[in-house]
Design brief:
With about 950 residues, this protein is an alpha/beta fold. Among the domains are: about 100 residues, ACP-like (Non-ribosomal Peptide Synthetase Peptidyl Carrier Protein, Chain A); about 100 residues, Luciferase, Domain 3 (Luciferase, domain 3), CATH 2.30.38; about 90 residues, ANL, C-terminal domain (GMP Synthetase, Chain A, domain 3, 2-Layer Sandwich); about 220 residues, Glycerol-3-phosphate (1)-acyltransferase. Helix 1 packs across helix 4 and helix 21 runs antiparallel to helix 22. The longest helix is centred in the C-terminal third of the chain and has 50 residues. About 45% of the residues are buried.
């Protein structure tokens, strides 16, 4: 019998070695990212699928540095094309494994993926909310996700695994009820663990959650549910998940909501015993419909997809520097976007523990919010302005003894107008309890953007703008108030657009307005809604071309968004959005009140840090007792319809409520009468009213027309002058015989352009510019005007680096080439490295160079991250760097606009910066020092 043939040994498992190499490479990438991060900013944690340039800021030159470090540390030789073709660290790992002779198959790919997942706490690859929850439940199932506080002494915690388990039970129950993908399911539950499970259960079943606010008191349950019938009808809800007490009213609702089949409780769904059938979901599926927190006669459901929510969550978390080490404490209602998205979905994405309580618990005892931050060492929390005002002015000092708020690093203030006085009072009241005033952060957002749109820089505190009231009223211009102005209008800054978002200020015709002009706030961004659910008319009115109209009024100054009012009739009180229509109609039906002669509006209340709701109702009743009864009846209606009494009920004689010619209520004009104390006063003769109104209107209109005419006239002059001198420059570029002469002639023509433009340009520090030797000038780039001014201000010996795109046109190539420009490729990494080497050779030969290291400019204000080319060249050649800051050029000629405006421009030359070495670290130090100097003078926010 022949002995069995020896079996060859199985090939060694490459996984352990691949694991080690992947870990080391990620560490090398992380080290370079940390070293290259802008000064004072936390570096991005790289993952295998991070985009090298977009996410990690590794441009072509940083890629060369990264390649050298990888080869030295790992002892491999990478092909030249590796770093120009690699887009992610995953590509680099694959290249290193090939260069090291290690098999790179499915097994090692899985190992690499696991390495990446162990290093991060966010589901970067998730495209739906369900995938986000499943990712966390799989990676850290026992991590506490939600801690629900009830009263003062009860806390219940759920892990990621528990939430997913309960949600699956709800999803199975919904499928048993016959709910199909795409159908709407409403949730009318108080803050509870059942709410969280119901929301994700609806998503797991492929349906659309519709959170609506629960009744404040069970005694109001019937009236409350009747008022919600409009929302349920608009959403075409098939099922309502609510509290057990509401189930008996299901028959009533089904008669009012044709699509509604059943009213159920969480227990009804969770105890079905069925197994959840998988449902396919896409990023474009609706993740929920956001309705306003007040009922209206025409409710509008904002459509928000999974892609919308994840984009906004990621942008907000990154702007806040959120990590799994944070703790979020919230009492915000879950039916509102600030509580649902900001407090819950954001914390879930970033694996942040959420400590949550009912808004009723907060309102009953506001100190519970602060003590929860103390006990759980909360780092993040948010509230409307009124909550900060309550805490600043209404709490007893004895209830705060021992309180420590030193852990609180982001105190967001949003959802209603922010009062600077409230913020100052809150900061002063709680500074002795460890609160850092720099943690106070007014933010701006709206449901149509998912949640947030503008965020301030971290640890900046509250910024206010002092505005001249008279000029604001007369010309709609937010001009800075004089230092001795006794009563300036103080407006709180809401920060800058989140990364990936744009904000503009437009007039009624959709034209973008210049800096400090008041207009409609419009935006673009990845979380912008596609419209209102089954409401094409409202959706059409929402958009201004490609821009979404927020309905708010404001202005931009130095890149900061400031809000001055609302163009819509929305009222905000106690953090709730309220609409006047339903209350006006109800009050009009009260016996003794003139029907159709009621105006409901809001006025600011600095004392409460919120808004006062005013009911102005016409009546012929003169008896004092009957008038007092009218006020009681009106307030009883207000309690039912808006959750509380009006702050003031004004009973006025007939014809006090102003109307349009078609009979519509003029709320803004009625509010103005109320604020002037003119309600009920004997009106002036009609002719006098008409004349006064006409005169005031004519003055404002003439001022606007004159301003517009001046701007158009200047724009026509400027383009005519640029065109004529540009033609002369082109002829010179073609016929002047020598390069040196062409360059001199073009330099003089550009200087003449700058002089004839009539721009009020102020130049400081130009004497800092070295007259000889190798110098690298770097400037911020906000407009094409920058190039014109820089070329005009620099001596003729400077070579300006221009983007390769200009070389593709015959005319710009001849003009800029004749002027001595050197074209640089920004998108092809290999070409970019070659162009940088060519410029480095010029610098080594003593040539002075000028760069716009941002690479290009956009219409939105802000100093973008700097590319490294100029600073690597300066470090390698020992050249000094001179930073140049342009201030105001973006307002002269904004990107995507052809209107040239005559605006003041300031150009500041900084002191030369000498390199402290020749390596990468020295180049990074030069970049940071130059950016810091430019930021000091450019008047725009830091977008790095």
């Amino acid at each position: 019998m022949q002995p069995a043939a020896a079996q060859p040994d199985p090939p060694p498992d490459p996984a352990p070695e691949a694991d080690a190499l992947a870990r080391r490479l990620l560490a090398i990438v992380a080290a370079l990212v940390a070293e290259s991060a802008p000064a004072g900013r936390a570096p991005v944690v790289p993952t295998l699928d991070s985009q090298l340039e977009r996410d990690l800021g590794i441009d072509s030159l940083a890629g060369v540095e990264l390649g050298l470090r990888i080869e030295q540390a790992l002892g491999v030789r990478l092909p030249d094309a590796t770093l120009t073709e690699a887009r992610t660290p995953r590509d680099l790992v694959a290249a290193v494994l090939r260069a090291a002779g290690i098999a790179h198959g499915p097994q090692t790919t899985d190992v690499i993926a696991l390495v990446a997942e162990r290093e991060i706490a966010t589901p970067e690859g998730a495209t739906t909310l369900v995938a986000m929850l499943e990712w966390h439940a799989e990676r850290h199932p026992d991590r506490t996700h939600i801690t629900l506080l009830e009263g003062d002494d009860r806390a219940t915690a759920w892990t990621y695994a528990r939430l997913l388990e309960e949600a699956r039970r709800v999803g199975a129950g919904l499928q048993e009820e016959g709910i199909e993908p795409g159908q709407s399911v409403a949730i009318m539950l108080p803050t509870s663990l059942e709410f969280f499970a119901s929301y994700f259960g609806i998503l797991l079943a492929g349906a659309v959650p519709v959170p609506i606010y629960p009744p404040v008191r069970l005694a109001q349950l019937g009236d409350h549910m009747r008022r919600q019938a409009g929302v349920l009808t608009s959403a075409e809800a098939r099922l309502l998940v609510t509290v057990p007490e509401a189930k008996p009213l299901g028959t009533l609702l089904k008669g009012q909501v044709p699509t509604l089949k059943r009213v159920v409780t969480f227990a009804d769904l969770a105890e079905s015993g069925e197994t959840l059938a998988p449902v396919a979901r896409t990023p474009d599926d609706i993740a929920f419909l956001q309705y306003t927190s007040g009922s209206t006669g025409n409710p509008k459901g904002v459509i928000l997809t999974h892609a919308n929510l994840l984009a906004n969550v990621r942008a907000m978390g990154r702007a806040a520097g959120a990590t799994a080490s944070d703790v979020f404490v919230s009492w915000l209602p879950l039916y509102h976007d600030m509580g649902l998205i900001g407090a819950w979905l954001c914390t879930q994405y970033f694996a942040i523990p959420l400590v949550v309580m009912s808004p009723l618990d907060f309102l009953a005892r506001p100190t519970r919010w602060l003590w929860a931050i103390h006990r759980y060492r909360g780092t993040l929390s948010a509230a409307p302005n009124f909550a900060y005002e309550i805490c600043a002015t209404k709490l007893d000092e004895r209830d705060l003894e021992g309180l420590d708020l030193s852990s609180w690093r982001w105190a967001f203030n949003g959802a209603e107008p922010v009062s600077p006085e409230t913020m100052e009072r809150f900061a002063a009241r709680f500074a002795p309890y460890g609160l850092d005033p720099r943690s106070l952060a007014p933010v701006y957002g709206l449901a149509e953007c998912a949640l947030d749109l503008a965020f301030p820089p971290p640890q900046r505190g509250v910024v206010t703008d002092r505005v001249d009231r008279a000029q604001l009223a007369a010309e709609a211009i937010a001009a800075p108030a004089a230092p001795d102005d006794p009563q300036p209008l103080r407006v709180v800054g809401c920060g800058q657009p989140l990364p990936g978002y744009q904000i503009r200020i437009a007039d009624g015709a959709g034209r973008e307005l210049p800096e400090r002009a008041i207009g409609r706030v419009e935006f673009k961004g990845p979380s912008a809604t596609r419209g209102y659910f089954r409401n094409p008319e409202a959706t059409q009115a929402l958009f201004d071309g490609d821009w979404l109209d927020t309905g708010d009024l404001g202005y931009i100054a130095a890149g900061e968004l400031y809000l001055t009012g609302r163009s819509k009739d929305l009222m905000i009180r106690g953090g709730q959005n309220l609409y006047p229509y339903e209350l006006e109609e109800a009050v009009g039906n009260v016996p003794g009140v003139r029907k159709g002669c009621v105006a409901v509006f809001a006025v600011p209340d600095p004392g409460k840090g919120s808004e006062r709701v005013i009911v102005l109702a016409e009546t012929r009743e003169a008896d004092a007792a009957k008038r007092a009864q009218l006020r009681q009846d009106i307030n009883a209606l207000a309690v039912d319809l808006i959750g509380g009494p009006a702050d003031d009920v004004v009973l006025a004689p007939p014809h006090s409520v102003l109307k349009t010619s078609s009979g519509k209520i003029r709320r803004a004009a009625s509010r103005e009468l109320f604020e002037r104390g003119a309600i009920g006063h004997k009106a002036a003769p009609v002719w006098e009213q008409f004349a006064g109104l006409a005169l005031a209107s004519a003055r404002g209109r003439l001022a606007q027309l004159a301003r517009t005419a001046r701007e158009l006239a200047y724009a026509c002059y400027a383009w005519t002058m640029f065109g004529l001198l540009g033609l002369v420059a082109l002829v010179a570029a073609l016929i002047v015989p020598t390069a040196a002469w062409r360059r001199a002639v073009l330099h003089d023509i550009v200087r003449l352009m700058a002089r004839l433009s009539g721009l009020p340009v102020t130049v400081t520090g130009r004497g800092e510019l070295p007259e000889a030797g190798t110098v690298v000038v770097v400037a911020n780039h906000a407009s094409y005007v920058d190039g014109l001014l820089l070329f005009a201000l620099l001596p003729k010996r400077y070579v300006v680096a221009a983007k390769e795109g200009f070389a593709r046109s015959f005319w710009t190539r001849r003009l800029l080439g004749a002027a001595g420009a050197h074209f640089v490729e920004r998108f092809d990494p290999q070409r970019g490295v070659e162009d940088t080497r060519a410029l480095a050779a010029l610098a080594a030969g003593g040539q002075a160079l000028a760069f716009f290291p941002e690479g290009t400019f956009t219409r939105s204000p802000g100093l973008a991250p700097f590319r490294m080319g100029a600073f690597v060249i300066a470090a390698q050649t020992g050249a000094s760097v001179v930073p140049v800051a342009f201030h105001g050029t973006r307002s002269v000629l904004r990107a995507d606009s052809w209107i040239v405006r005559r605006r003041p421009v300031r150009v500041t030359f900084g002191a030369p910066l000498a390199p402290t070495g020749r390596d990468w670290a020295a180049a990074v130090r030069l970049r940071d020092a130059a950016r810091a100097e430019i930021l000091r003078h450019c008047g725009e926010p830091d977008l790095a």
